[in-house]
């Protein structure tokens, strides 16, 4: 499908699937795009991957292996690959962390996190999504003001792809209830107080009741890695 057809399809589906269960949104995506549909997962939690494995068995799960992940996150990725009916695709940046340190200096994440995210997350995602027509992520409207208008199915203008957000209308309570009911694989960091898990240098624990994403790039104005703008 060309860009205009994908955009029209996204507009129609976004209206029709508003309020649909995430499983139904994922089934529609799998039936509509087949092999040209993939999900992304940060492995901070495995709710979307678990739902996708049920709705679209064998689906490709893209994991952005930035080189800065906690060991627990990599172990969670490996457990997902071993236990769920999915195919995990780990995508790496063009530069290793060591090569980046030589070229840009140590701890770029502390000096210019936008550039670091651009090289270690955004470019790899853009590269791997070439060849797909649609992709899904686990973002939700209740996570932050910048995500409050997230459509269930929208059009990713920057990449020219349909963007699916099956969990857009779910709350943290919905996610927790599903995870408990299904006994989903849990990243051990969550039980240690990391409500939203990203790269180790840019992720902190949050206090009970604090916004889940408050621990990401704490102390900086940055709130998004650039994947969802
Ligand atoms: S989250 Fe931090 S370490 Fe990871 S890519 Fe972005 S700036 Fe770099």
Strand arrangement within the widest β-sheet reads 3-2-1-4-6-5
Element-level helix/strand string: HHEHEHEHHHEEEH
Overall form: globular
| Radius of gyration, in angstroms, nearest whole number | 17 Å
Uncertain spans: none
What structural category do the secondary elements indicate? alpha/beta
Q: How many helices? A: 8
Largest sheet: 6 strands, mixed
Share of helix, binned: 25-40%
Describe what this molecule looks like in 3D.
The protein has 229 residues and is of the alpha/beta class. Helix content is 39%, strand content 12%. It is built from 8 helices and 6 strands. The chain has a 6-stranded mixed β-sheet with strand order 3-2-1-4-6-5, sandwiched between helices. Helix 2 packs across helix 3. It is globular. The model has no long low-confidence stretch (mean pLDDT 92). It binds iron/sulfur cluster. Residues 66, 68, 109, 113, 116-117, 120-121, 198-199, 201-202, 225 line the site of iron/sulfur cluster.
Reconstruct the topology from this structure.
Blueprint: H1 3-17, H2 22-33, E1 37-40, H3 47-55, E2 59-64, H4 71-83, E3 86-91, H5 97-104, H6 108-111, H7 113-129, E4 134-136, E5 153-156, E6 161-164, H8 172-182
Parallel strand pairs: 1-2, 1-4, 2-3, 4-6
Antiparallel strand pairs: 5-6
Helix pairs in contact: 2-3
Index terms:
12% strand, 6 strands, six-stranded mixed beta sheet, alpha/beta, 8 helices, globular, 229 residues
């Amino acid at each position: 499908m060309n860009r205009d057809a994908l955009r029209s399809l996204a507009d129609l589906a976004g209206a029709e699937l508003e309020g649909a269960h995430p499983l139904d949104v994922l089934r529609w995506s799998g039936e509509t795009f087949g092999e040209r549909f993939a999900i992304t997962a940060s492995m901070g939690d495995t709710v979307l991957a678990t739902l996708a494995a049920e709705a679209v068995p064998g689906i490709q799960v893209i994991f952005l292996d930035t080189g800065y992940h906690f060991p627990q996150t990599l172990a969670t990725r490996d457990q997902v690959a071993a236990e769920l009916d999915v195919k995990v695709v780990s995508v790496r940046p063009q530069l290793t962390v060591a090569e980046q340190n030589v070229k840009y200096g140590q701890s770029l994440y502390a000096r210019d996190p936008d550039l670091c995210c651009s090289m270690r997350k955004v470019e790899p995602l853009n590269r791997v999504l070439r060849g797909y027509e649609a992709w899904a992520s686990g973002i939700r409207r209740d996570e932050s003001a910048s995500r409050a208008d997230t459509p269930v199915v929208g059009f990713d203008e920057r990449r020219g792809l349909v963007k699916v957000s099956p969990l857009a209308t779910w709350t943290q309570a919905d996610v927790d209830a599903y995870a408990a009911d299904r006994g989903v694989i849990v990243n051990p960091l969550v039980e240690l107080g990391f409500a939203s898990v990203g790269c180790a240098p840019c992720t902190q624990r949050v206090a009970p009741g604090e916004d889940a994403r408050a621990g990401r790039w704490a102390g900086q104005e940055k709130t998004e890695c650039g994947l969802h703008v």
